[in-house]
Amino acid sequence: MTTTDQSVFTKIILEMQLASGDQIEQCQRLQAAEVEVGKSRRGLGEIMVEMGLLTAKQLETAMAEQRRAIKEIVIGPYRILDKLGQGGMGAVYRATIPDTGVDVALKLLPKELSNDPNFLARFRREANIGMELHHPHIVRTVDFGEDKGVFYLAMEVVEGGTLDQHLQVHRTVPERTALKIVRDLLGALQYAHEKALVHRDIKPSNILFDREGKSKLSDFGLVKAAEPDPAFMTAGTTVGTPHYMAPEQARGQPIDIRADLYALGATLYHSVTGRTPFAGSSAGLLMNQHLTKQMPPPESINPALTPGCAAIIKKLMAKDRQLRYATPSEALDDVLRHLRGETPKALTPAARPHPRPAHHPSSETISPAKPAAPGQTAGRKAPGATQSAGAPSRHRGPAWTKQWPLLILTIAVSILAGMLLMLAILTSGSRPVAHADAASEPTSAPAPSAAPAGASAPAATSPPALQPGAAPSGRGTARPLGSSPAH
Ligand SMILES: Nc1ncnc2c1ncn2[C@@H]1O[C@H](COP(=O)(O)OP(=O)(O)OP(=O)(O)O)[C@@H](O)[C@H]1O
Ligand SMILES: [Mg+2]
After folding, report:
1. Of the candidates 265, 303, 92, which has an alpha carbon nearest to the alpha carbon of residue 181?
2. Atom in ligand 1 nearest the alpha carbon of residue 91
3. Last-in-domain residue among 107, 130, 157
4. In a shared domain, residues 215 and 341
């Protein structure tokens, strides 16, 4: 028996002699085991029906009796009105202080834990902290105490249900709405961070909505195990599902606010894809996946997701916390950027995973053929740079080629003239000095460009056949940068 209503329920079952104490305990163990692997907590009565211990009619009768009995329960100054929900550590009731009209959400903790002095010390310390938190997106803790061995925490009642309940019905939350929830919760986390507090259990069931739909983070300051703690597990309770747990938290390392950022990222992942990042049949398997496995990219599950939102999720959920946002406010800035329609910083490295110098040779050949995506400034500039600076270089080869016929003609004329001159000398006996100088003119024309220009712009001065080999060497990069001599 872990909660008051279960105490009442089992008392009724025993009084009606519908099941034995052993049978009830067996069902409670199954109930706790299901919660531990991340399943929603089922009612004890539902499990008893499934096990064949109760008929549906008997369950109905026992529940009606339970509702009547619960209303007679008074804990501290609070009279219980009805049950608001059930968590891993206990039940939450709507309760009132009689004759005042003040209603609270009363969280009752399992009796087993009240025997643990360490737990109680932490409960008191953290409940005190919780009461000092005043933020529009944090559920207010208004009171805590103990009555007849039952520890309770009184909070403001938040009427609109939890994100978990919403996801169970609607499966997903529209991206923009989900990001606005995250924006508000990041504000709450930044507020806590400035007080050196870490929540440690961010998950959809700890995100409540008020009647206007405003989100609020609950269980802040509520005593929880900072790391998987066998004492919590064996008490038939859970530290929260491991679906959203940061790797360092699963490892049992000291944690900081970045573990909350991871869990918030996992919550956002769940909200926009309808799935938790990992699935597993046990808490251990789930934690192991957070430690070692790459999650399916959120955009692979929801292709309508914007790249900015997917990038924000991935940054929040980086396994290495150094790669996450350093603080909630840094994450908040990025979410706001994305909500304004600007490119979030999280997207920048993903968009340019291999930044390379603007003058890299491959940019000359690949970029012009492949239109650059908007925002890829390096990609956009490269084609333009290549075209403008590359134009002269393309003309240099053909310019040389155009001169060859003239040279050949000149040489041929010279040889012909020389032969005629020789013939004239042989026939006349005179020496051909002036004509010999004229014959050297065509061969001297390529010489200046072949040697000195080869050092500064070899591709420009090489025969066209050599240019493909020159380009990958990197020397070809000089051409787009406009360092070739004028021709
Ligand atoms: N302040 C509140 N106002 C209204 N309903 C609440 C409030 N706090 C909790 N509840 C309801 O009680 C349910 C149980 O909450 P609880 O915090 O005990 O469990 P949990 O968050 O699901 O699990 P865990 O015990 O691991 O935190 C919630 O799902 C919600 O429906
Ligand atoms: Mg909770």
Report:
1. 265
2. 18
3. 157
4. yes
